[in-house]
């Protein structure tokens, strides 16, 4: 089974499309994705890149409609606009890293995006985080405390450093050896490259 590194940030809008369909894609193509939450916000600041500035309303409106159309094309839905940008961006991603270490991360990430894009509930704050912890049988306060610990802050920064070294500049990104494929619509391209 081929392996592809999957760099993403909870907070990236188009990553909703990827995490919603990625498990089916893995099964279909016999591919294994290595999930790597990182801070795309830090890297974008380093590039002086503002993805959807408020004064560019046409671009912002296009993004929301594009996500809706693409979701429909994949067989699910998005109800936009959603809360954006996130108030607890880093915490959302550090919880993801904790969860991936503990075995419930993929479920947490997918539920987080589902609640964000289908129910309008912002990640890593209530009611989303309480509902997800209840669904997964987790203790919210303990999860938040552990995710904020120095161990997981360092893992988060390590993933971000790794992304930077591999020249990742956006989320979602897929790395096949030294090849970068950026964007949900490049996931299949990454798979095809991995199978070459």
How far is it from the N-terminal to the C-terminal residue, by CA? 13 Å
Rg? 16 Å
Relative strand content: 5-15%
Instruction: Give the structural class.
Output: alpha+beta
**Helix amount:** 55-70%
Brief overview:
The protein is of the alpha+beta class and 196 residues long. It is built from nine helices and four strands; from the N terminus they run βαβαααααααββα.
Task: Give a quick set of tags describing it.
196 residues, alpha+beta, 9 helices, 56% helix
Written description of the protein model:
- The structure is a single chain.
- By secondary structure, this protein is of the alpha+beta class.
- The chain has one domain (2-194): 3-Layer(aba) Sandwich (Glutaredoxin), CATH 3.40.30.
- The protein is built from nine helices and four strands, in the order E-H-E-H-H-H-H-H-H-H-E-E-H.
- A four-stranded mixed β-sheet has the order 2-1-3-4.
- Helix 1 links the parallel strand 1 (2-8) and strand 2 (31-37).
Write the layout of secondary structure elements.
Layout: E1 2-8, H1 15-29, E2 31-37, H2 40-46, H3 57-74, H4 89-102, H5 105-119, H6 128-136, H7 140-147, H8 150-165, E3 173-176, E4 179-182, H9 187-194
Parallel strand pairs: 1-2
Antiparallel strand pairs: 1-3, 3-4
Helix pairs in contact: 1-5, 4-5, 4-7, 4-8, 5-6
């Amino acid at each position: 089974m081929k392996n592809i590194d999957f760099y993403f940030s909870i907070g990236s809008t188009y990553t909703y499309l990827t995490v919603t369909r990625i498990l089916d894609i893995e099964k279909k193509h016999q591919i294994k994705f290595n999930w790597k939450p990182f801070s795309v916000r830090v890297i974008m600041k380093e590039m002086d890149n503002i993805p959807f500035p408020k004064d560019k309303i046409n671009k912002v409106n296009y993004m929301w409609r594009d996500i809706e159309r693409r979701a429909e094309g994949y067989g699910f839905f998005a109800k936009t606009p959603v809360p954006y940008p996130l108030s607890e961006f880093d915490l959302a991603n550090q919880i993801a890293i904790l969860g991936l270490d503990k075995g419930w991360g993929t479920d947490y990430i997918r539920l987080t995006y589902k609640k964000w894009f289908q129910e309008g509930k912002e990640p890593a704050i209530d009611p989303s985080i309480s509902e997800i912890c209840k669904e997964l049988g987790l203790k919210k306060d303990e999860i938040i405390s552990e995710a904020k610990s120095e161990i997981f802050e360092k893992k988060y920064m390590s993933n971000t450093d790794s992304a930077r070294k591999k020249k990742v500049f956006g989320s979602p990104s897929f790395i096949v050896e030294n090849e970068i494929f950026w964007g949900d619509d490049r996931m299949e391209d990454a798979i095809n490259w991995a199978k070459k």
